[in-house]
Structures are given as C-alpha cells and as structure tokens.
Specification:
Strand content: 15-25%
Number of helices: 6
Number of strands: 3
Radius of gyration: 14 Å
Length: 110
C-alpha cells in the first residue's frame, strides 16, 4: 500500500482507512496521548477528516488544512482540547520539496 511505501521512506506509523482502526492505532502509537500535528490533505465534501483530526489530536495540537473538506468544525472537542486550526496554501511550496509533497499526497490517497 501507499502507507507501506511511506513507511519505507521514513514515516514511523501509518493507517489505511477502511483496513485499520485509525483512532485505536494512534492511541497505541502515542501511548494514549494523541498526536501533536495533523495535516489534512483530503478532498471531500464530508466533515469526517476534521472530526477524525479532533479525535486523534492531543491537547493543544495543531491541525493544518491543505486539502478541501467539509468545514463544520465540531466545537466541543476543538474547544475542550484547545486545538489550533490553520489553513495552508502550501501546495506550491510543497511541490518544490518533492519528497515531502509525495509522502503527504500519497498518504491522503491511502
């Protein structure tokens, strides 16, 4: 899978949606703390990516939206965890850093 390819190139852990249970795997990998930084590169009208980001984030984590998704941020988890949500127009910058861009875009399709 593309997650396997990313792990061969230095990623520590990965999740294949529909195969793995993302929340359980993140909790296992982080000893229940959640992740510090999340980059959303999905393209969907659904709200699921921003909801899952809140579920796997630790307190005061940063979530960056590079893709395009539904944007109905669930107030309760974002407020209770004091999550930082940022928008990025970084596709041109990432394209210049081909290794970074290929890993991020690959993960969004797995």
């Amino acid at each position: 899978s593309k997650v396997d390819l990313a792990m061969q190139n230095g990623m520590h852990e990965g999740v294949v949606l529909g195969v793995d249970e993302p929340i359980a795997k993140v909790n296992q990998f982080t000893n229940g703390y959640g992740v510090d930084k999340i980059i959303i590169t999905a393209s969907t009208k659904e709200n699921a990516p921003v909801e899952m980001a809140a579920d796997i984030a630790r307190d005061r984590a940063t979530i960056v939206m590079v893709g395009v998704t539904g944007m109905d941020l669930p107030r309760k988890p974002y407020y209770e965890k004091e999550l930082n949500f940022k928008f990025s127009r970084s596709y041109k910058l990432l394209a210049k850093r081909s290794n970074c861009f290929s890993i991020i875009s690959t993960l969004s399709k797995s």
